[in-house]
Amino acid sequence: MSGSHILYVEDNESNVLVVQRVCEHLGLPLQVATNASDAITSVLESCPRLILMDVSLPDVDGLVATNMIRNLKAPIASVPIIALTASAMVGDRERCLAAGCNDYLAKPFQVRALVGILERYLNNGD
Amino acid sequence: MMQVPDPPSVSRSGNRRSLVDLLVQIDSDLLRAQTAEEILGALRPVLAYYQAQRAKLHFLYTDAHNRPTEARLVASLRQDGSLEPLSNLPALTFRLAEYPFVARTVEQRQPYFIENIFTHPDIDEQMLAYARAADYTAIIALPLFVHERWLGFLSLDWQQAQHFNDATRIFFKTLQTNVAAVVAGYRSYIEREEAHREIELLYRIGSAVNAAQTYAELIQAVARYAPMHPYSLSITHFENYDLQNATYAEIVAVWGANRDRLGTRIPDQALLPLSMHRKPVIVTDTADLAQVSPAVSETSRARGYRAFLSVPLTYGETVLGALNFFSDKPRDYSAAEQRLAKGIADLVAVAMDRIRLREESLRSQARTECIAQINTALLLATDEADIVRAFASYAAQLGAVSVSLSYIEPGDTLKVMRLAAVYSKDGVLTNFPLATPAVLNGKFSAQLLKRGEQLVCVEDAQTDPRLDAQERAALVDYGISAMASMLLHSGGEWVGVLNMNWDHPRKFHEDERTVFEAILPPLASVVGRRRLWLKQLETLAQLRQLDRLKDEFLSNMSHELRTPLNAIIGLSDVILQGMDGELTPRMHNDVQTIYNAGQQLLAIVNDVLDIAKIEAGTLTLRFAAINICTPLREALETAQVMATTKGISLIADLSAQLPLVRADANRIRQVALNLLTNAIKFTDRGTVTLSAYAEGDRVIFCVRDEGIGIDPAHHCLIFEQFRQVEGSLHRRKGGAGLGLAISKRLVELHQGKIRLVSALGKGATFYVSLPAIQ
């Protein structure tokens, strides 16, 4: 099953709110998973168009989750994953990309930047 | 061939006339006799005349006091006038000491007439037994001598008892003198011959001995010409000879059997006769416990010899050692053999002195090389394993089983020792970086440290009185019987102990002590340095751990601050973008303030992280050859928004052709943006200018504003962290005061300089100069 939604994996409610507002504005359906295992379950039920992945999750590291998704069967494995993280030290970006994320956006981010990334990856897929 | 005359046709009545004829008859043959056999052959008429069953000629040999000590049978004539081959006869040589009757007889110098040995009052049991064995009853013995010179004795014997009348007695008395004169001539001749042969032999041995360069060659030279067909030959060298006695003797050369004895040390008791009295030692039968101790008897049996002759090797006043001839059968050594052995010993002694000096010089050379080799290995050593391995080849040379290094833990008590590395002879190397410390509570170790001795050699752990029972047991556990301990003192404290260990008791040679003593100072310094380095390594690890904790803290801090900031900035941005619906201008203004405040807080978080990383030295710059205008333009673009908002015009004056600089473009942009935002912040109206140009071998960019300016008194402060120039006016400008401090550090990391030119009310200009790539 391939869905038309965006999956946001994030345990912090106020961060969810920001992304929710942006997606509402853009008319993109959004599903939220508050931990990695929910995220995997959700992905298996219905493959999203794009995943926004926080890195520090309550169960496992978001990058581990990314790696797990990359090891699932097609087309799930090739879904665009954007790391959305407050880990903004030197090397964090590289770590995310190495784990299989397509892009990286450090928190706090500009709405403009998020919109830009969403447009870029969603248009690519169409 | 000598003409043997017919037996004389005289009656046995023994009249004077016929006896005179007999004397005349044999005289010419006697005078012509050239050998012992011919001398005896000349007496055939006498044998025939008296119908004696046998005549024997013995030569006598004397000791230094001219006492006859030895008799050797040289010819034997049978009744039928034929010569008996000597090989048929047992015991050609006998010692007079063992035949007291013969000795007595000979020394009386008179012809001895025994008509019936079994009734004669002087005869002892030994002689009776001998007479029975030789099957005679009557015997005439004529001691042969000229003046004081002993020559031998002539004997005739009869199976039956005889009666010797006066004429016969006078006849034999005359014969005694005549034969003595002839034997004297003959013996002088053969002695000259023998002396000549001896001299020739000594000359040959002398040349070979003189050519010898080593003990092995020396003994070969002796063996090549050695008389007495030895079973084995050896040369011993006496150590520490003090004109009285030696500490011990070392076997320095062996020929023939028992070559495995080479290098063996012989305790001093065995040397006394040689070293004190300088007399040869002769043992004719090692099975005879009257001659040797049970121990020597046992040793000789195990070593396969039954007799030996040891001659002292004397050189001037000194006894250098001994030359030993071993025989695998019991045997005696004739006076001639002893003389020859002494002659050889004199030659050997001279050569030995020369070889000893040469060997000493070679040993000293070997010692120097050995020290140099260990020293070099120590210099190259980087860890404990290398240090013990530096001794590997020397340990192998000395037959040691292992080399171990232990560290003495510093402290007041000096009681804890930690094994650091062990090298064992089969090449196994064990490193114990974290070995359990052993407590040094034995008497021995405690004493050593107390006395400050640095080299201690234990020759036998079982008997060394310096060890207590506990230490002895510990050494037995490790299979150690002997050891050389080097206690290492460096930098004012005991740092460690290096032990070379043997599984058997051993003596330590002076040479070895010399090597150990020479190695001690460099070894102590290497071990001292190594320990210092380990200590530094430990400190470094602690610092690294602290650093890691700090990094972790910063990383967590950053994460924790950014997460709420994301909601503040993100949501206010969402509202400002109109995503939550229309806003009144007042609402827009308020939300904008929240958004700006969020951005400011983010900038502060970034600045704090930057300065922390710069301080920790963990900030990594990505250097590349760049045109400085690229990051400057990016910074201008970002600052433009702020300038426009404030109504300030931003002017760029960037030279088109600039040399490249080696820089991190992101960081240069950060510096430029910081200077630009500062300039805009402190300028209320007017212009802010960013220029870039080349000057000499440097590329310079500067930011000029027309703001309030900075008092020169404050110029030195503004680049410090958390500084803002005092005054309520400036408070409202915001910022944590880190921007300039970060800029300055970043510029310095580029080998550049930052400089301020300003005065109050005159605006300010910040110059940044970076080295151009040549």
Short description:
With 126 residues, chain A is an alpha/beta fold.
Overview of this structure, please?
Chain A contains 5 helices and 5 strands. Chain A is of the alpha/beta class and 126 residues long. Chain A has a 5-stranded parallel β-sheet with strand order 2-1-3-4-5, sandwiched between helices. The longest helix of chain A has 15 residues, at 111-125. In chain A, 40% of the residues are buried. The model of chain A has no long low-confidence stretch (mean pLDDT 89). In chain B, strands 13, 14, 15, 16, 17, 18 and 19 form a 7-stranded antiparallel β-sheet that branches. A 6-stranded antiparallel β-sheet of chain B has the order 3-2-1-6-5-4, sandwiched between helices. In chain B, strands 9-8-7-12-11-10 form a 6-stranded antiparallel β-sheet. Chain B folds into 5 domains: 16-194, Beta-Lactamase (2-Layer Sandwich); 212-362, 2-Layer Sandwich (Beta-Lactamase); 381-508, GAF domain (Beta-Lactamase), CATH 3.30.450; 531-612, Helix Hairpins (Orthogonal Bundle); 620-771, Histidine kinase-like ATPase, C-terminal domain (Heat Shock Protein 90, 2-Layer Sandwich), CATH 3.30.565.10. Chain B is an alpha+beta fold. In chain B, a hairpin with a 2-residue loop joins strand 5 (138-146) and strand 6 (149-158). Chain B starts with 15 loop residues before the first helix and ends with a strand. Mean pLDDT of chain B is 82; it is low at 1-14, 433-437 and 724-734. In chain B, helix 1 runs parallel beside helix 6 (166-211) and helix 15 packs antiparallel against helix 16. The A-B interface holds A 12, 14-15, 17-19, 21-22, 24-25, 56, 86-90, 106-112 and B 554-555, 558-571, 573-574, 577, 579-580, 598, 602, 609, 613, 619-620.
